[in-house]
Specification:
4 copies of one chain form a homotetramer. The first copy, chain A, is mainly α. Chain A is built from 10 helices and no strands. Chain A has helices spanning 23-40, 47-54, 58-64, 68-90, 105-121, 123-138, 140-167, 177-180, 182-194, 201-213. The model of chain A is unreliable at 1-6 (pLDDT under 50). At the A-B interface, helix 6, helix 7, helix 8, helix 9 and helix 10 of A face helix 6, helix 7, helix 8, helix 9 and helix 10 of B. Chain A binds a DNA duplex through helix 2 and helix 3.
Chain lengths: 218, 218, 218, 218
Amino acid sequence: MAAQKSPRSASGRPAPDAARRSERSRRAIYDAALALVVEVGYPKTTVEGIAARAGVGKQTIYRWWPSKAEVLMEAFLDLSLQAAEEAAEGEAGQAPYAIPDTGDVAADLKAVLRATVDELRDPRYEAPARALAAEGVVNEPLGREFMARLLGPSLQLYVDRLRAAQEAGQIRADIDPRIALELFVSPLAQRWLQYTGPISHEYTDTLVDYALNGLAPR
Amino acid sequence: MAAQKSPRSASGRPAPDAARRSERSRRAIYDAALALVVEVGYPKTTVEGIAARAGVGKQTIYRWWPSKAEVLMEAFLDLSLQAAEEAAEGEAGQAPYAIPDTGDVAADLKAVLRATVDELRDPRYEAPARALAAEGVVNEPLGREFMARLLGPSLQLYVDRLRAAQEAGQIRADIDPRIALELFVSPLAQRWLQYTGPISHEYTDTLVDYALNGLAPR
Amino acid sequence: MAAQKSPRSASGRPAPDAARRSERSRRAIYDAALALVVEVGYPKTTVEGIAARAGVGKQTIYRWWPSKAEVLMEAFLDLSLQAAEEAAEGEAGQAPYAIPDTGDVAADLKAVLRATVDELRDPRYEAPARALAAEGVVNEPLGREFMARLLGPSLQLYVDRLRAAQEAGQIRADIDPRIALELFVSPLAQRWLQYTGPISHEYTDTLVDYALNGLAPR
Amino acid sequence: MAAQKSPRSASGRPAPDAARRSERSRRAIYDAALALVVEVGYPKTTVEGIAARAGVGKQTIYRWWPSKAEVLMEAFLDLSLQAAEEAAEGEAGQAPYAIPDTGDVAADLKAVLRATVDELRDPRYEAPARALAAEGVVNEPLGREFMARLLGPSLQLYVDRLRAAQEAGQIRADIDPRIALELFVSPLAQRWLQYTGPISHEYTDTLVDYALNGLAPR
DNA sequence: TCGTAAACGAGACGGTACGTCGCGTCTTTAT
DNA sequence: ATAAAGACGCGACGTACCGTCTCGTTTACGA
């Protein structure tokens, strides 16, 4: 079995040694990237600017990420992780990363969506989330990564909760939960992303009602 | 009232005389912009590239548009207009710009959504539409313009059709059509924009069924 | 005869239109390059620095010169030209660009060499001349250009003066003037370039004496 | 007197312990530096390149030399030393490091200069010698070191030989040998360094003749 | 019908950021 | 304990486009 002295990444460049990576720099880069996106917007956020703000050489960024979009992706991922951990601490003993199940699907979904609305309005989350979404629209690999690492896991929580509701007989058994969740999640996403309408707690409540009960008369 | 020899736009620059504008150049610029977005993608499409390909001076672009996003917006608007006119010719005597009303809402909606799916898969439409959507996500004024000039009018057609369905008693009267349409339009939009899932005729059919009948058992 | 719409330089890049070149920028670049070489030395003089000091975009330098060495070459050539013109004004009616001929070769050569010594000590000339010489040593094309455009013409003046001396019988007819001149010019050049010894009026006087009369006893 | 555990050089850094220096590494660094200068030229020879080629850490270079110029200087000095030792072996019983004295100054000088011409044409010597000369032109301390350690000793040999000639009555007693030698050495040096003309055995022979006999008629 | 003023093509300009290279220092790893 | 390996902060490289600004050259209008 041949020893592999200098492993190469897909780009053909020798892969850097991750074990010797500076944790300090990584944190500073995450912080700088997030702060800049909030302060000056994504298009005016430059790799050079991130490096300067983080007190880091440009090469240190290019060594570990292929583009500013990937930097922001990991920074945002890290931010979400931290937030999730903090949230988990508050509700000790409870399953983290799950939509609560009080027995009332409608109420549970409304609660989660209200929380989501609040989050989408917090500039600290909104700016990077919007930037990543925009980049992903036009950059398919990044878009798919965004889906795989952020959107997907979140959507899975809805799938799980809807499955539970099906078992409880609150949702028809022949419904595909993966599609069903889009009836209330996607409208919110589109209003937020494309300014197709205002978002509010009232609005998401209505979405849940419409989706669960349908538009046609009974 | 004082004579105004060289009227100035809000930017303080003398407004160009639109009457003397070269139609030839405008067309060439539209064609070049759309072609480049399809061929090399939006981020690699540059004003310089558009000018070169259109055989036009850069200033001719900057004279009439403030940014490449606006150029593309108008180019795409123009493209949509042309396409709509062509489509209208095929169905003479019928109201253009409307969702057909056969009396069966579900069928009508499914038909329109199937057509939309086809369009979203045509690279000639997809590339510029995606580019504008992405730009609009991160550039609010442009996003709102995109909504006002393209998305809005399209969505209004759904509102009209849903209103007709309400009058025909096929949809509950207390439903807000502006929100209702999002139950089947937004999921498609999100899957397309964010790669959250595959899009197909089957999928949109399912969306219409779910939306009209709801998820909960009757 | 084919029209040549976009002539290309040897580098394969379209040649810029010299007619539209900014004289203002060129002057500013010359001045900045010379000043920086004097102030911070050649190795610390950067294209970026020249551009910044000249108030010019980097591309304006790269558009017209392939390297900082070539910039400095032309700047120095320009400086020499100006100096020569100023000098020529002072001695109206006299042939410019020539070594004076008073009939006494030894005296004439000593006078020119003394002037050269003075020039080599003037930092405004020394710094760029030294920089170009150094670069030329290790960069053959540039070295040859330096020889062709600066050194060569100067040495030719010695050839001319020595020929006159041969006709006047002050120098043997079988002597090759192109080689002869090196007996007093090259020693000065080497002392200056390589710090092999101090340079002074006395020293160059001695060189002329030794060269004309030889080292062996008569 | 206080014990000094880690003596510090003028730079304030702890002086490395020369006794523990790796002879192996030094040799590898010399070889790599010389080879690179020959192969890619001095400007493209980098400390990183030398280290990589020598299979040595960069720090091992920086520990012992302040710059790539100094590395090359010592490498070249070492090369010259080796060459001189090899040459000395061939002529056993004779004084090493001296210009032969056959009684005929002209012949002896011509012989040495012919050998020098040959050396200057050997790429293994030419490339590093030229590199060091160029660096020395623009970097005064290095230039003076080059003079002190390489050029000076070589020139001294000429001084010695010329003194002998003066005692033998072949050269006038009032001649300064330190200046005299420049009449034939410097022209060769300048032609070589600055491409002011071709170098050949014929050329150096002529230089010796001109220098010894002078240019003026007797 | 002809001048003339505007729009036009071309592209040079002052800039900003790109992604890369090499510097000289510092740290880790594996003898 | 030493030295290879190489990550780091830094600064310059040479390139690509930005948006502005002249340049002549059409072009179309109104005198």
